[in-house]
Structure formats: C-alpha cells, structure tokens
Design goal:
Number of helices: 8
Strand order of the largest sheet: 1-6-7-5
Mean pLDDT: 90
Distance between the termini: 28 Å
Shape: globular
Low-confidence stretches: none
Radius of gyration: 20 Å
Order of helices and strands: HEHEEEEHEEEHHHHHEE
Helix content: 25-40%
Oligomer: single chain
DNA sequence: CCTTGTGTTCTCCG
DNA sequence: CCGGAGAACACAAG
C-alpha cells in the first residue's frame, strides 16, 4: 500500500531512470485505469518526453511535454522500470527479481521509450489510475493537498494550526490528505506509537508538548521509512521491482497480539478507528 | 466478511 | 441559515 515513503522511493527511482526519455509507444492493457480520453491520452503522450517526476502526497506527477500525467497507485499499484527487453521473450536479466513482478496478468499499461526501455504499471485490484491534465487542472489538484511532512514549509507553527478548532481523533487528522499529505494507515499507526499517543485521542485534548512531539516524530518516521525504501507486505515494489525493507522496522502495524517492543510487557491491540484497522499498545500509548 | 485510499454525502454545531 | 468539521458510507477487486 504505497504511502508517502513508498511513492517517494518510486519517484526518486524514476527520476534517475526515465528523465528526458521519449515515449515511443504505449500499450494499454487495462483501459479502466486511464481516466482521460483514450485516444487523446495516446495521441498526446506518444512522441513526448518526460521532463520531470514529481510527487504530492501519494500522487505521482510526471511532466510530459506541456501537460502532466498523474499516476495514483492506490493499494496495489506498481511502477517498474526495465531497460532490457529479454524478459518479455522468456529470459530474465535480474535473477533476484521474480519475472512476474515485472510483467504479469495484472499489468495494466506499458510505456516504451526510445531505445526500448519500458515503464510497466501493474495493478492487481485495478484501483489505481492515470490521468492526463493541463497545468491549471494540475495546480488545482495540488492545491488541495496539505503540508508535505518532509518539506521546509512543514513548520511547527503550521503544524500547530492544524489542531486549532478541531476535535477529530488524531488518526483521522493524520490520514486527512488535505491537512498533511502522504500519511496512510501504516504510518499513521507508527507515528502514534512513536509519539506514545493513543490514536483515538481527540486532538483538542492534546497538550502542546504532545503536538510538538508529534511534529518531530512524523518527520522521523517518514524519513526513516524512505531510508529503507518503504514497507512491503505483499504488493509494493520500487521502480526497480525490489521490495521495501521497512517492515522489519515497523513497531506496531501488523503486530497485533505480539509483545510491545517498547514496554515489553503488553500485547499490541487492534481496533477499528476512522474506518481503519488500527494497531496500538494499550500500555505505553496514552 | 476483510483489506485501504479517496470521494461523496449526511448530520451536527456554532 | 450558512459554512465548516467530522463522521459515515460507498466503491474499487480479490
């Protein structure tokens, strides 16, 4: 489930791999994912170059010509780059990667660049999408996102403002993309645990100290997750087809019934909160 | 039934 | 009564 660290890992990878490459051909296997007019989508993209690979929250924004290709991976989307063509005809250039993570029955779209390297999007559940937009539409979409936790404008002052006149539970605030961009279910739980705060706390009851701690911890958790190239439970792969390594650094998510790694006495519990499965330590989160 | 990301819809409150 | 907040629901597919 790609959240900020996973999408950022993909963005960094693609920036190295597909920048300035010209799209030679596009094969659309699952048309459902293309949210723009099919013919216009193909007509515009083919022959144009990738100028930039950006990200806002969990959304990738590729600058292509004078337009923008938005790519959202939702839950099971993958974007994998390949600069060899051999695997298509059977062989595989990277033995450590299973061939089926590159191209398989969930492959939705294949971009082929000049020189025959490829960008392959897979999506098992077909929740993801690709959408071609102009500058105005792009800016409208970007404007809806909240602060990026790793950008310099994520200041303590701005962060504190989020909590003014709000009463929602902390987890709902963390998941709200219009307030803070990029946090999903896994990192919301990790952040609450790292801050020793119960995710169901009403944010108007948080102390200044707790908010300041959250501010630090959000950046710490997200940065560490990027360092380890994200969390792979099952589907997530980076742009090279590799799994992320952050699972072994998760402190609460997916640890229901296991001993808390901090207090080492209480078992991690799970509840439903803000409509999502939520993991927490009833002992050391207050 | 569950899973999560997101968009919509509805209710409530000041 | 308007506007915003927040919760609830819907939807995607396996």
């Amino acid at each position: 489930m790609p959240e900020l660290p996973e999408v950022e890992t993909i963005r960094q990878g693609l920036s190295e791999k597909i920048l300035h490459k010209k799209i030679k051909a596009i094969k659309i296997i699952k048309p459902k994912l293309v949210k723009s007019n099919y013919n216009e989508f193909l007509k515009f993209l083919v022959g144009n170059k990738i100028n930039k690979v950006d990200r806002v929250g969990k959304l990738l924004i590729l600058s292509v010509g004078n337009k923008y290709l938005l790519i959202h991976l939702k839950m099971t989307g993958q974007l994998i780059y390949s600069d060899t063509r051999e695997f298509i005809s059977g062989g595989h250039p990277f033995p450590e990667i299973k061939a089926d993570t590159l191209q398989n029955k969930s492959t939705a779209i294949i971009f082929t660049f000049t020189g025959n390297s490829q960008l392959i999007m897979n999506d098992q559940r077909l929740f993801g999408y690709l959408k071609l937009v102009n500058k105005e539409e792009k800016e409208e979409i970007v404007a809806k996102f909240g602060i990026e936790p790793l950008q310099s404008d994520f200041t303590l002052e701005k962060f504190k403002k989020i909590f003014i006149r709000r009463s929602a539970v902390l987890k709902a605030i963390l998941l709200n993309q219009q307030l803070i961009a990029g946090i999903g279910n896994i990192y919301a739980d990790e952040i609450c645990f790292a801050a020793s705060i119960m995710p169901d706390r009403r944010v108007n009851n948080l102390s200044v100290k707790e908010i300041e701690n959250l501010y630090k911890v959000i950046q710490k958790v997200i940065a560490k997750a990027i360092k380890y190239k994200g969390t792979t439970f099952k589907d997530y792969r980076d742009s090279s087809g590799q799994a992320g390594n952050f699972v072994e650094h998760l402190k609460v998510y997916g640890r229901k019934g296991l001993k808390c790694l901090r207090c080492k006495q209480t078992e991690i519990s799970k509840m439903k909160l803000a409509g999502r499965g939520t993991h927490y330590c009833p002992n050391c989160q207050k």
